[in-house]
Amino acid sequence: MGRWSEWHPLTEDSIEEFGIEETGVYQIALGDRWIIEYPFGESPIIYIGVAPVRILKDRLKDHIQGEGNQCVYEYSQRYALFWRDMIISGNPEYTEENILKRFAAEFGDIPACNKRME
């Protein structure tokens, strides 16, 4: 598995500057020390996503333009959000699945905005 990038604000400018033009996985989290209570602990992470075909940069823009995950968009209207990504050589969907499983094992559930998609 690759390495996570640094966290960046989930804004058009930040995505344009730091977003990558490759496929991979990404996480979106609440900023300003906001957290979500999960069954086994607290985490600021609200979404774990994948860009298996489109580039990560475009997928992140979708979320703040209301064309991606609706839950992420709703959070972006109320809170400062941050993102980080990871380039994956091979199958990014497999990596996303494993990251979601590890998150669920650690926190007792999948991230709030992934849950709304079920």
What does this structure look like?
The strands form two sheets. The protein has a four-stranded antiparallel β-sheet with strand order 1-6-2-5. The model has no long low-confidence stretch (mean pLDDT 93). The longest helix is centred in the last third of the chain and has 16 residues. The chain starts with 7 loop residues before the first strand and ends with a helix. It has one domain: GIY-YIG endonuclease (3-Layer(aba) Sandwich), CATH 3.40.1440. By secondary structure, the chain is of the alpha+beta class. It has five helices and six strands, in the order βαββββααβαα.
What is the CATH topology classification name? Answer: GIY-YIG endonuclease
> What is the succession of H and E elements?
EHEEEEHHEHH
Total number of beta strands: 6
User: Approximately how much beta-strand content do the residues carry?
Assistant: 15-25%
- The span between the termini is 26 Å
User: Looking across the biggest beta sheet, what order are the strands in?
Assistant: 1-6-2-5
